[in-house]
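Anyone up for a design puzzle?
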């Protein structure tokens, strides 16, 4: 029987070890790749009238929108990495927050790109204007991530000694991380189910809700 004092390291090793991270990365990437082809297949099945919805959702009207789905699963993995680095590296933890925000904006760019209107009145069309804002924001975030990583490596590369973190503080962060992992995946699974239900059953209803595949 596992002693009480060993429960935390045991659970932590199961949920947040390096091996678990690598397995999770492989699984998520495979799911993301498969979801892209499934999404793309549904779009073309609708296009050639093999499938029929009374009202086709926006994400199923243009092949470019198929990129939205794999990006959503990649964001799931990035959030997992955010939890993974919580008890480990503060610099990487902050960087991951910027990366997640950037990925969300990039995902939205592909969604908006599918309904982009190319015209001379670019700045008069609300959708095109929003696309421009998101594009500028994503480039700015890429620059901030680059600068943050650059200065972070410079600081830690100068041989600056960092005092060991208090053991109790590390343990508390590990406890929080262990609690967050199952909670996060339950929320992600619930969101995925709700989103899938909206995509495939919303055309049968009169009400249209705005459920995203990832909404945290």
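Challenge accepted. My sequence:
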């Amino acid at each position: 029987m596992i002693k009480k004092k060993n429960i935390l390291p045991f659970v932590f090793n199961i949920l947040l070890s390096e091996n678990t991270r690598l397995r999770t990365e492989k699984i998520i990437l495979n799911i993301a790749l498969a979801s892209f082809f499934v999404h793309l297949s549904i779009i073309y099945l609708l296009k050639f009238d093999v499938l029929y919805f009374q009202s086709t959702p926006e994400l199923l009207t243009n092949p470019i929108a198929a990129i939205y789905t794999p990006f959503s699963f990649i964001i799931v993995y990035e959030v997992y990495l955010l939890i993974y680095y919580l008890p480990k590296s503060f610099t990487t933890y902050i960087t991951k927050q910027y990366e997640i925000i950037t990925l969300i904006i990039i995902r939205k760019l592909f969604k908006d790109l599918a309904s982009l209107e190319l015209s001379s009145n670019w700045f008069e069309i609300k959708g095109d204007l929003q696309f421009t804002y998101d594009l500028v924001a994503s480039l700015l975030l890429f620059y901030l991530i680059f600068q943050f990583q650059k200065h972070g490596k410079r600081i830690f590369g100068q041989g600056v000694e960092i005092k060991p973190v208090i053991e109790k503080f590390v343990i508390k962060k590990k406890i929080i991380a262990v609690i967050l992992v199952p909670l996060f995946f339950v929320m992600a699974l619930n969101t995925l189910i709700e989103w899938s239900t909206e995509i495939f059953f919303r055309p049968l209803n009169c009400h249209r809700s705005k459920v995203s595949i990832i909404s945290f």
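A detail worth pointing out: Residues 4-204 form one domain.
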